[in-house]
Amino acid sequence: MKHLDIYIDGASKGNPGHAGVGVVICRDGEVIKNISAYIGKATNNFAEYSALIYALEEALILKADSLKVYTDSQLLCRQLKREYKIKSENIIGLYQQALRLVSAFQRVDFQDIPREQNCGADKLATKAVKAALAAR
Question: Count of domains in the chain?
Fold first, then answer.
């Protein structure tokens, strides 16, 4: 079984504001892929879900069977574990897309972690926003 550990984060400067996603993908404790992408203007929650979708799509490309997804978004984590309902209309489509992608794996676990333990993904998300703003 091919297992990956994935750290995700979304950043929004203003809420909504300029937003980016950061993803760190690890195999056996080694970073194998970093993703940093600007996604335009969005809320922080939209950016968090976008980061998850980027991560799941990349994990499919890498032919993973099993994932552990780490996020500092307690809201996203609890929504995906079906502990919280989704009330935001602009998130429902992303949530459904994420669930479709999750179904392609044998196992996906979501873990809510403190922000300090997610600094790699956080830096990548912030870097994407800063780069986009600097290019203007």
Answer: 1
